[in-house]
Design a protein that fits this description.
By secondary structure, the protein is an alpha/beta fold. The protein has helices spanning about 40-55, 55-60, 75-85, 95-100, 140-150; strands at about 10-15, 20, 30-35, 65-70, 90, 105-110, 110-115, 120-125, 130-135. The strands form three sheets. A five-stranded mixed beta sheet has the order 5-4-3-8-9. The longest helix has 12 residues, at about 40-55. It is globular. The two termini are about 25 Å apart. The model has no long low-confidence stretch (mean pLDDT about 95).
Length: about 150
Amino acid sequence: MPEINTQAPEFTLPDKDGVERSLSEFRGKKVVLYFYSKDGTSGCTRQANAFAALYEDFKAIGAEVIGISRDSAAAHSRFAEKNSLPFVLLSDPERQAIESYGVWQEKKMYGKVSMGVVRTTFILDENGRIIKIMKRVKPDTNAADVLDFLKSL
């Protein structure tokens, strides 16, 4: 996993419309990069809706929100439309960004061990440096916690 005060790993992934998006295109803005496991699941939907509810506040302070999961661009498109998500969702089925950010980890649920995306949020400054890492975040409070952190800068 990258560390605070290091350059965020670069990536290029398709968005919900299949358009290739690179992290570098967001330079000049603070970036909230949140990794989640699956579109449409209860926790991931609550987390996405919380970011959507605060999206105008993020924009007002010059921050962009980007969600990344292994779901396809088509799944992201349905998820974004169903939940009126105004921010960027990126598809990473090959785990390019997921692995470079170290969020593909062993998970335990109901006694079963498997590999999966551990809900993690990275906050980047305008130059693409990591200024905060929030591990194993709670879906209902993650967006507000991130916004509070950004406002405190």
